[in-house]
Amino acid sequence: MRLGGFAGIPMQQIIGMEEPARYRNKGSFPFGAIGNGVVFGFYAERSHRLVPFSDCLIQDERIVDAARRVAAWANACGIPVYDETTGEGQLRHIVARTTAEGELMIVVVTKGQLKKKDDLLSFLEDVDSVWHNENPKQTNVVFGDRFTLLAGKQALTEVIGGKRFSVSPQSFLQINRVQTQALYQTAREFLAAKPDETVVDAYCGVGTISLLLAGDCARVIGIEQVAPAVEDAKANAKANGVSNAEFLCGNVEDLLPRLFAEGNAIDAIVLDPPRKGCEEAALEAIAKSAARRVVYVSCNPATLARDCKYLASRGFSLSAVRPVDMFPQTCHVETVVLMSRVY
């Protein structure tokens, strides 16, 4: 928080993880060619040079095994790997996700139509949900617009804080389910919502924080720009018997000012933005509102500090900071901050 110009930061003890291995429940790996063989791996830092690997000790073993099997299919069936430089080839990425209940979802991303589909499925017979994504654009964005279910379930089910959440290929969930419990419990503790209050959960994803807060307050309004995630959030509310949560699809910087302009009395706000942080229009709307508390959940200390500095200059004080080791054995951390209105 030094970047925000704060002194005397009310920093609390970081929440660590007891068994910091094999914790990642999602993996996204590009494919490449070495000699005549198809391999998968990570890109070297600040490049698109593929570094192949055979295992990753912070990744769920089932996810690494899924990548091995898709590579084996490509090698057996002669599927050409996509070349970012020329735009030629087909096989681009595998994205895989596991759940606490042992389910596995795989998305195979190709440039064009999927060839040798039946052969692929023979390599993935025990997978709970198999999808194909077609991405014809010459871009480093992983997913294209078209998703096709090849076999199994339309969505998986994840359990967080005693709630059940439906998860589709595009849904965002934290990648460490153990530390997610600690992260969201901290957000709930800091917010301390009251039974008569209305809370906005901005960047709500599939509604995880929204539904965990719903039992503490009168009304929760979730905002999310990814339409399939909003549909998942609505389904999750229904599946969990939550009737006081509603979900809006759109950009936070557009919908949050609109909520205030329409006269909604918002008492508290949760912000859980992507790494780039919040748009200034969203922060400006919060500053001009009557909201008394803001809980900010962040995976990027730099943008967190920037946004907290903005709110601190417009009537809020930094009340509490608690880091959560969401990504053990890396330099990254999640941080939960409470900003309180100064009267």
Automatic annotation (TrEMBL):
One of its GO terms (molecular function) is rRNA (uridine-C5-)-methyltransferase activity. GO terms for biological process: rRNA base methylation. It is an enzyme of class 2 (transferase). Keywords: Methyltransferase, S-adenosyl-L-methionine, Transferase. Its EC number is 2.1.1.189. Gene3D superfamilies: 2.40.50.1070, Vaccinia Virus protein VP39. This is 23S rRNA (Uracil-C(5))-methyltransferase RlmCD. It comes from bioreactor metagenome. The gene is rlmCD_30.
